[in-house]
Specification:
heterodimer; A: 801 residues; alpha+beta; 7-stranded mixed sheet; 27 strands; B: 40 residues; mainly alpha
Chain lengths: 801, 40
Amino acid sequence: MTATMTTEHRTIRIPVTGMTCAACQSRIQRTLQKQPGVDDATVNLILNDATITFDPAATSPEALVDVIRDVGYGASLAAPDQTALQEQNARDDDAATEYLTLRRKAIVSGIVGLFAMIISMPLMSQLAATMHTAGGASNVGDPFMRWTMTVFDPALRRVAPWMYAIDPRVTTWLLLALTLGVMTWAGRHFYTGAWAAFRHHAADMNTLVAVGTGAAFLYSLLATVAPDFFVRRGVAPDVYYEAVVLIIALILTGNMFEARAKQRTSSALRALVHLQPKTARVLRDAVELDVPVEDVIAGDTVIVRPGERIPVDGAILAGTSAVDESMLTGESMPVAKAVGDRVIGGTMNATGAFRFRATTLGGDSVLAQIVQLMRDAQGSRAPIQRLADRISGIFVPIVMSLAVVTFVVWFIAAENAPAVRAFAASVAVLIIACPCAMGLAVPTAVMVATGKGAELGVLIKGGEALQRAGDLNTVVLDKTGTVTEGKPTVTDIVVAPEGAFVQREDALLRLVASLESRSEHPLADAIVGYARAQGLSVVEPDAFESQTGRGAIGVVNDADTAFAVAVGNAALMADYAVDTASLQADLDRLANDGKTPMLVAVDGVLAGLIAVADPIKESSRAAITQLHAMGLDVVMLTGDNQRTADAVARLAGVDRVVAGVLPAGKVAEIVRLQALGRVVAMIGDGINDAPALAQADVGMAIGTGTDIAIEAGDIVLMRGDLRTAAQAIALSRRTMRTIKQNLFWAFIYNVIGIPVAAGVLYPAFGLLLSPILASAAMAFSSVSVVSNSLRLRRFASALSS
Amino acid sequence: MTGTEWLVAMAGVALICWINWYFFLAGKTTPVKDVPKDTL
C-alpha cells in the first residue's frame, strides 16, 4: 500500500486478489464508491489493486479492506514503509505464484478431463445409439461430438474393447468422484467467487462458469444416483461429467495464458524495478562496506566502479565517468559526468570509477518516482473504457436470460431428446459468453503502451492522456528550451578584415570574455562560458563599466599589454567614434538569423563581432518535420521579439509563430486554438510553462538531462528531444487503434459466439456447439485480446532511429 | 404445445424475470453497510 496525503483526504492503494474479469472489477469499484467517506475509487483488473481516495475522518484503510473482503475478494494492507519498488516486487511475486498455481490446476484438470473423456466413451456411444434408435439424428451438428463419435469412438473400440464391457454404473460413479475432485480443487474459486458475487446481487465470469458447470454436474449427479427418475419419464440417464471437467480445464488454461500475458504487459515496469541493485558499496569510517541498498542513508559516500549499476541517487564527489541513462531517459549515448553532476540510481556506470554522495533515497528517488508514476498511469482508466464497463456490468445477467430462452426454445422446438439438447445448448451459451475479453480490451493496451513509452523515454501519465494524445491535431511548442537548447552560446566570431585580430579569433574572444567576466548580463555569461569551454584563460579586467542598453567598456591586461576594450551595439561604437562599416553586412545577416551580434572595439578600432544565440537543438527540425508528416499543425510561442522568433521558426520549419507572448498569453493562444475546435498539445518545460501545459488538452513537459519535472504535464518527455513528442503521439494513436480493435473483437466474439452456441445456425446449417467447444472458444477470446495488446510492445517508431 | 412445454415456457419466463429483478433491481435497493465505529 502506498499513501499520499492531500489537505484533508488520503489516497491509498490496496492490493486485491481473486478478480477474474471486468464484472469483478466493476463490482468492487461500485461497492467502494458507495462507502461513506469514500470520494473516489478505481479498481484495476490488470494491476490487481484498488486506488481509493477517502476522508480519514469517515473511514479507514482497514475498513476499506474489510469492504473488499466482504464482497468476496482478498485484500490486505501492505507494510506502510514499503516503497513503490518493493511493492512492485511483491506484486510480481504474487503474479508469478498465481500463474504457477493456475498452470498446475490447468494441467491436472486437463489430464483428468482427457481420462474422463476416454472412460466415458462407452457411455457416449450408448447415448448416440439410443438417440438414433429414438428416431432422431445423433448430435452430429456439433463438430466436437461428430469427431468423437466418428473418429475417437471407433479407434478406442479397437484399442480397448474391454472398456466397453465395464458396467456403466461403475464408470459413472468413478466419473462422479473425479469430477467432484476437480470442481472442489481446481475449480473451487469459480464457485466461491460466483457465490460471493451472488450475495451482492452481482454476476461475473465465475457466475457463468459456475452455473454452466454446476447445472451439468447436478443433472449428471441426479442421473447417477437416481437413474430411474429419468427412465420413468422416457429420458436416458446421461451424464456430462467429462464436459464439466474439460470446461474447467479449458477455462483454467485460458486463465493461465491470460495471467502469463498480463505479466508480460507489465514487463517494462518490472524491468524498471529490477534496475536498482540490491547492494551498494559505501565508505563508512574510511572502510568500504557492501550494504543492502535499503541501508544507504542520505549523506553516505557511495563508491561505483566501471560497469557497475549506480545504486542510489546522488551527486559526484570525486572522479569522472560516462553513465548510460538510456533505461530512464531513452538517451542512447552515455552521458559524461564530472564532480558536482547528478547521478540517478539504477543507471549504468560505463567507463570511470567515482564516488558520490547519496541524496534522495527510497520513495523519493527518481527511479521510485518513475515506477510510482507508471503504476498510477497503468492503473488509470481511459475514457473509452466506460463503454466496456457499462456493457460488462449488465452482460452476465443478460447472458443468463439468453441461456434460459435457449433452453425453453430448444425444449419446445427439438423433435427428439428435447431436454438433453436444450440443456446442452443453454450450458454452451453460458460457457461461451466471455465478459473477460471486454474487461481486458482497454487496460492491457494501456499497460503495454505506457511501458513501451517508458522504454522510449516518454512517461505517459495514464489512459486519459493516452487517449487525448491520440486525438491531437495541433502541437504548440515553447521556443526556449524546447525547440532551442535554452542556453545562449556564442555562435559566430567575425574578426574585422583590417583589424588587429585577423586570424586571432581566440585572442579576441579572450579579451571580450575577460571584460564580460565582471558583467551579470546573460549574454556575458554565454561568452565567458564559451571561452572557458574553448580552454581559454579568462582574466579579471583592470577596469569595467557597464553601459545599460549599450554594452560594456573596460581595460583588460593581456600578456602585459593593457587593451581598452568596448563590447556592445552600434550605439556604443558610435559613442566612441568607431567605424563599423566593414562589418555592417555581417551585422545585418546575423541579426536576421535571430542572433544577437555584439561589436568589439579594441583601443578605439573595430576588432570584430561576436554573435550570441540560443541554438536550435539538432533534433528539433527532424521532429517538426515528423509532426507535419503526421498531419499535425505546429505553432511556436515565444516571449522573444518577432525577428528572433521568425528566424528560429524558419530554421526549425515551424509553420506559424506567435512572438512576444507572456505566460498568460500562451494560455490565451491555446484557449483560442481550442475554441476553433483544435485538439492541442503544449510542449514546454515543466516550470515556466505550467499554466499552458495545464490548459492544453495534452501537456507534454520536456525534461533536460536529469532535471525531470515528473509532476508536470500529462506526458513527460524524459530527455530534451522533441522527437520523443512525435513518438508519444504516434504511440498514442497506435494504442487507440489497438484498443478499438480489442473492443471490436471482444464484442463481435460475443455477438457471434452466443447465438451460435444457442443454435441459431442449426436450422439452416445443422451446426451446434458443445459446451466443451464453447469453453475452448471462451478461453481463446481473452487470450487473443491480450495478445493483440502485446503487439504494441513491438511499436518501434521510425523516429527512434 | 404440450402441458410440459407450457410449464417449461412459464418457468423460463419466471426465471428470466427473477434474474433481471435480482441482479438489476434488488441490488440497487440494498442498503450500504455502515462502517463500524471501532474501525475508525
